[in-house]
Amino acid sequence: MKYLFDTNIFIAQLVNDPKAVEFFSPFFLSQNDIVTSQIVRMELLSYPGITLQSETIIKLLLDEFEVISIDDNIEREAINLRRNFKIKLPDAIIAATSIVEKAELVTFNTKDFTKIKELKLYK
Asked: What is the pTM of this model?
């Protein structure tokens, strides 16, 4: 199965939140194709209070997964989603990436995405 990890999944892993354990287990990672969005990378690395140690850990973690760049298809889909569902631009880009990549979105923030019917959410 193909999954796209949202920003909050990485943050949960970084703070050793037990909710993230399943997603970063060797079994889950070996059985699935995991990708993430370019905007997730930007959100994680642009945090104003980020320490050099945290930045290093985040980069190492992100290097384990394919980061999908924002191309014309994702841009068009994000514009469409933002217009139709009035969601924040980063959420629109994450949802659009998931839709275009045909990946289920893994997020702890489902409330921002539930109204988007063509988006598959990991449950």
From this structure: 0.94
